Structures are given as structure tokens and as C-alpha cells.
Amino acid sequence: MLAGAARPRMPASAARSRLVEPLSGETRLMLRAAQLYYRLNLTQDQVGERLGVSRFKVGRLLDRALRESAVRIEIVHPAARLVELEDELTDRFGLGGAVVVDVASTGSEQDDELLARERVAGAAAVHLASLQPTGAIGVSWGRTMLEVAAHLRPGWTAATEIVQLNGATSQSARPTRAHEIVERFGATSGAAIRLMAAPAIVGTPGLRDALEQDPSVGETLAAARAAQTAVFSMGVLGPESVHVASGYLGATDLAALGEAGAVGDILGRFVTRAGGIALPSLDRRTIGLPLEELRAKTLTVGVVAGAGRGPIALAALRVGCVRVLVTDEATASWVLDHA
Hints:
It is a single chain. About 50% of the residues lie in helices and about 15% in strands. The protein has 16 helices and nine strands. The protein has helices at about 10-20, 25-40, 45-50, 55-65, 80-95, 110-130, 145-150, 180-190, 205-215, 215-225, 240-245, 250-260, 280-285, 290-295, 310-320, 330-339; strands at about 95-100, 135-140, 160-165, 190-195, 230-235, 260-265, 270, 300-305, 325-330. Strands 1, 2, 3, 4, 5, 6, 7, 8 and 9 form a nine-stranded mixed beta sheet that branches. Strand 8, helix 15 (about 310-320) and strand 9 (about 325-330) form a beta-alpha-beta unit. The radius of gyration is 26 Å and the shape is elongated.
């Protein structure tokens, strides 16, 4: 019997339908066995003694009761729906795992956003500790990743190196805090760290190529490619995007991305709901790990939380760059409804 599950009960409708016709001896025996086992909580051995049949016979009677819906099992634990969503996501997208978190509404959109990020990030940190990835681990940056890093506990794993996956040097007065994420991952895992000293997006493809060939960026990018584990968040398209706050994108860029069908970004790569690169001209100016290389890694943990994140979560799943998804219930439901 599952923890938190009610013992199966006998539906009244099923009982009434059987009263219409005289009960056969075998049917009567089945119902008596079900009553003794499910309502009186007797063991199968005790039921057999009461009815004068073997334990094996009792098992067959109970199987028949379930098969014919004389007994209905209901799982009533509050987390049952979350587990169901996790299983649906895993099956639908061929994932290695999924973690879906319940986030209660506060009545405030801003507070809901903060609570969703905090709850999902906490669940991601716990799940990462259960996975215990070793070797080099690549990490992205952003508000959700900053929250994940804050929830990591010392000794959650023993990594060799934490590598920044994409550029993050801010072009505005607001820092990206990418270094805090990498440093926290490193400090809690006992690993060395490797930062990427470059912006997320630059002015021309030529400048991007020149920066990626410079050892200060190129060596980090090579380490990011070599890491077999990646942990990353996904961003939405709009004024609230960290790429807007950090000065990488303006109103013109947002308009062009919107017209191209972009729904958000993964490692600064803006994608459509179908999973394609929305604006190749912008992508050629983006510094960091390409999505095809992210997709090739052994373990990729995608973390996404908050209102409006369904489309980018679905896009990331369609890209195939997520092996384990950690998200909130609303996002998970949206993804399954629109897949």
C-alpha cells in the first residue's frame, strides 16, 4: 500500500449493479474477501482462514475485484498530481527524470514569481545532490541559477571543475552575478572554477570569433565543451529578460526576436517554440556553448520556474538539450497541454 494512499473502497454503484441479479457463489466469495481485506484490514492469510480458502485463492479473488471494478483504488496524497506530471514529462519527452514542484499562489504576481523561483531552485539543488555528478560541470547564469547556487549545500558532490557555459560580462550598471554562481558551485563541491571573460552578445560575428579565439575565452569554451554535465536555466523573451537588464538587448532587438517567433533563450541562444534558432544573425554574435553541443552532453539539468515559462520549457525539450527537467506545476501542465 502506497504511503498517503487510501485503502481501496468498494464503489456504491458497483455494489448496486450486482444487487440487480442473484449473486453467484464465486462472486459472493469475491465480495466477502474484498470486504474483509479492504474494509476490515485483515491480511490475506486471515481472510483465507475466515473464508476457508487458501491465501493463493484470496489473492485471485482480490485481483478479480480490482479487475471488475468492485474495488477502486484512489491515491489521495497531495503530491500525487506532481508525481503524475513527472511521469508524463519523462514518458512524453524521453527524459532521464523530471521534478515538478507545487507552488502556492500568493495573490501577487511579483511574489508568485519569487516564490516559484525559490521553490524550484531548492528542488533543483536537492535533486542535483541526489545525482552527484562528478568531473567538470558546466553552469549558466541568471536569476534562477543564482537561486540554485544559493541552495547548494557543502559536499553535495565532488566535482573537479565548474565551468561557465556562456558569456556574461554585463554591458549595463546591473551586474549579471555570473561569477557568484560559478564560485558557489565550486565552493560547495570542492572544485576549481573557470569563468568566461566575455559578454553574452557582441556587436559583430567577427568580434565574437576573435574573442572565442583568445585564450581567456577560448580555453573556457573548450572546457565547457568537454564537461559532460551541464546545469542551466531558461529565460523568457521580454523586458524582464536578464539580457535586457544586462544591456545586451534593446527594444529593437526584442521586436525582431518577437517577429521571428522567439519564445526565450537557452544559454543566450534565442529559440522558437519548435526549437529552432529564431534569429541566426543574433546567434552568430552570441558567445557560449552552442545548443547542439549542449544536447550532446551526458547529463543536462534544465531549471525553469515562473509564469510564462511554458513556451521556452517546451522549446528546450524539443531541442533535446534537457535530460532532467526541474520546474513548477503550472509550467509542467502547460508543456504537456501544448506538446
